Structures are given as C-alpha cells and as structure tokens.
Amino acid sequence: MDFKLDQRLEKDTYFIGELTLSRVLLMNVSNFPWAILVPKISGVSELFELDSKQQIVYQNECNYISRHMSEIFGAHKMNVASLGNLVPQLHTHVIARYKDDDAWPKPVWTFQNMLPYSDDDHKLQIDKIRKLIDDYEQGENYARL
After folding, report:
1. Is there a cis peptide before residue 105, judged by omega within 30 degrees of 0?
2. Is pLDDT at 139 greater than 80 in this prediction?
C-alpha cells in the first residue's frame, strides 16, 4: 500500500520536507511555530503499530525536531503530542510555546482564534524548519531503516 497523507492534514498544512521515516509539515497556524511529523507508512494510526526499529527512528525524529525547534524559536516549553482524535493517521504535533502566547497556559487545541499564515510568513517558517531537516540528514542523528 502506498503512503497517502490524510486529507485533513493535506488541507491544514504546508509540506516542509522528508526525514528517514517522517514527512514533516507546517501547520497553517501563525499563532505558534507548529510542525507535524507523519510516518510515511500506510494504515498506521497508533505508535505501537510501528515495528520496533520504526518506533526508534520516529522517536528520534520527533525528539530532534522538538529540540531544535525549541532552540531556533526560543520556546519556553515544547508541546509534543500524538492525539489522532480527528485524524486517525499517526502523526505527532511539535509546537513551540511561550508564556505570552495567545493560548498560554492552556492547550492550543482549546484556542479559538487560530490565524493562518500569510504567503511570505509561511515560507519563512518552512525555510527555518527545512534547514533542520537538511542538518539532520547530514549529521549523526540520521538513522536508516
């Protein structure tokens, strides 16, 4: 079965790039730096459905993006979650949070005034995170399946 991104994720995000296991997306919400990682494996809705090697690679990719987004965006806290209540396809949200952001200290899911990116702003965010992907593939964090 070929990998196909869930329609809702396709509609709500911009493509950033590809890691070993994951497609990396930018959520079209300008209120928070917000990436989403999706394992490129069809039919997977839960983390435990990945084999043990895939679980390790996926966790490493999520940790890497989270750690480096925290650094480049100067986050006070990183929110990392795999909920899947509305989108059953396994995906992990990586969100940089600030003590003065629009939703603090509540979860972003409850925030009602999500603002989409302008064309120029989303391109700037994509470039920042795409650099992380390029660095990952060049560095010691690169894991092959």
Report:
1. yes
2. no
